[in-house]
Amino acid sequence: MSKSAITLAMTGASGAAYGLRLLEQLIIAEKKVYLLISKPAQIVVNMETSLKIPSRPAEIQAILSEYYNAKSGQLQVFGREQWMAPIASGSSVASAMVICPCTSGTLSAIANGLSHNLIERAADVTLKEQRKLILVHRETPLSVINLENMLKLAKIGAVILPANPGFYHNPEKISEIIDFIVARILDHLGIEHDLLARWG
Question: Whole-model pTM above 0.90?
Fold first, then answer.
């Protein structure tokens, strides 16, 4: 298993399939994954997918580890107020963090330095340690507040990667549209994949 770890957070925007497909690809790439799923995200997963996510982190970890065939210890799931989690500190070994999907509320909290829960704290740590933070914003249209928050975050190094798939690869299935975005995320993480043919 790769020594580098990725923090993946899922918040309550529609588009749970993006986050779950990314989780699957990180497991396949043998990355250690620290997973955070907000309560609204749990509801969205249960609404939009065939998975039924329980409320307790230990149960989520067991279900997803089995579902994605993760190796022992490869996937760790933390609750919203587990402040002793490694990702709450700058000494964490996580090399990058992805929030996928990312709500406008989460975007706003991060842009304004809030740390009301572990997702926000982990993002704040990622920024202050100058590690890669990728925000896969899924909501539309964008207000001036959303745009200003995105600009603020982009100026300090965050990658704003909206879930806006291209169609030049002529997708025939929803899964191919999902893979377009997940492939772009993996590219920015520097993780090899075969989800999408390269342009040209």
Answer: yes
Instruction: Kindly list the distances between the CA atom of residue 183 and the CA atoms of 18, 82, 161, in Å, as whole numbers in the listed order.
Output: 10, 30, 11
CA-based torsion, 28, 85, 89, 157: positive or negative: positive
CATH of domain 5-189: 3.40.50.1950
For every one of its 200 residues, what pLDDT tens digit does the chain have, with 9 covering 90 and above? 555 799 999 999 999 999 999 999 999 999 999 999 999 999 999 999 999 999 999 999 999 999 999 999 999 999 999 999 999 998 877 899 999 999 999 999 999 999 999 999 999 999 999 999 999 999 999 999 999 999 999 999 999 999 999 999 999 999 999 999 999 999 999 999 999 888 87
Question: Rounded to whole angstroms, how far apart are CA atoms 17 and 188?
Answer: 19
**Residue recorded with tokens 């690869």:** 169
Listed in sequence order, the DSSP H helices in 134-193 are 144-155, 174-189
- Residue 134, amino acid: I
